[in-house]
Write a structure and sequence with these properties.
Residues 1-33 are annotated as: Disordered. 57% of the residues lie in helices and 0% in strands. It has helices at 2-10, 32-62, 64-74, 89-102.
């Protein structure tokens, strides 16, 4: 009994976890998890390449809440947002004029848009 415990301890790391590659102790062979994951991802990719765009469109049309949930899950947890309040008056004025020019608006007397 003690011999079994000693053998088991030799195949564990300092945290008590089994060291990778000791299938003789009932663990999985080294690299087997990677092969399974690679095969799964290859098949998932092939399926998505064939059916993905249609599935996305169907979910967007039939279950918009799920569609938005997926989009939200892909976004980072924290997003740095800069506000226009961080701009100087001159910078804010310049950006307003750029936007007005892009929209083909002109400013008249007193800042009225024409």
């Amino acid at each position: 009994m003690d011999d079994e415990k000693d053998q088991e301890r030799r195949h564990r790391n300092e945290r008590g976890q089994f060291v990778t590659g000791h299938a003789s102790l009932g663990g999985r062979p080294k690299g087997s998890r990677n092969r399974l994951g690679e095969e799964f991802l290859e098949r998932l990719y092939a399926d998505f390449a064939e059916h993905g765009p249609d599935a996305i469109a169907r979910v967007r049309e039939e279950k918009p809440d799920q569609y938005l949930r997926v989009i939200a899950s892909l976004l980072p947890k924290e997003v740095k947002v800069s506000t226009e309040a961080d701009l100087s008056d001159e910078e804010l004025d310049r950006r307003i004029r750029q936007l007005a020019a892009a929209l083909d608006l002109t400013f008249g007397e007193g800042g009225v848009v024409h």
